[in-house]
Model the fold of this input.
Amino acid sequence: KNPGRSMCALPREVSPVCTRLGKGDSTLTAIRLHDIAGGDDWAEAIGAAIRMSAHVREIDLGTDWSKNELGCGIRAAGLGALLSGIEASRSRVKWLGLSKSPIEDEGAGRLGTWLATNPPLESLVLFCCGITPAGLQTLLAGARKCTSLKELILSGNPIGDAGVCMLADWLAGNAAMRMLLLFSCGISAPGALALLHALITSAIILGVMLGNGSSTRCPANTVPDTVLVAIKAAWRQVPARLLMC
Done:
C-alpha cells in the first residue's frame, strides 16, 4: 500500500511518477521534476512511493539554474520525508539535486544525518538553497562518513570565508572528492587561500570553481585580483586540477 497523498491531489507531472514508483517499475531509474509548486507535499509523496522501488539512481527536484528563482519550493520537512523514503527503499540513489529549494540550515542538517549513514550518493547539488555556515557545519559532519561523495555544488549559498574554511578542513581528510563548485558564495581572500592550501597539501584530484553567477540574489565572491593571480600561479604547480576564478 502506498501511504502517500492521493494521486488526484498531486500535480499532473508528479502523479505518474508516484504511481510507477509504487508499482516498483524497473524502468524508472531517474526522477527529474523541475519548477513544480507545492514542493513539500509532493516531495513527501515521492518519499512514500520510492519505498517500493529498488531501481532509482537519480533524483533531480531542482530547477534550471538560470530560470525560476523559487525552484520547486521543497523545504526541510519535505526533504526529510524524501530522505526517509530513500533510506527505507532498496534504490541506490547516486545523484540528488535540490537547486533553489529553500531547505536552509535545517534541511542541511537533515542531509548531514542521512549522509552519516554512508549512502551510495556520488553527487549532491545544492545551488541557492539558503545554507549558511551553521548549516554547512552539520552537512559536513555527516559528509565525513559518506565515502562515495565525489561532487558537491554549493554555489549561491552564503557560506562566506567561515564556510570555506570548514570545507578546507573537510577536504584535508577526503580522498574521494572530484568537483566542488563555489560560485557566488561570499568568499574573499582568506577563504580562497585556506581552500588553496588544503588542496595543495592533500592528495586529492579536485576541480574547484570560484567566481560569480548571474543571479543577483546570490552573495558575490570578492577575491582580489592580486590573490587570484597568486592562486592561479600556485595552481599550475598541481597537475590534473582545475581552478576557475
Notes: The radius of gyration is 18 Å. DSSP finds eight helices and eight strands in the chain. The helical segments are 15-22, 39-49, 76-88, 104-115, 133-143, 160-172, 189-200, 225-235.
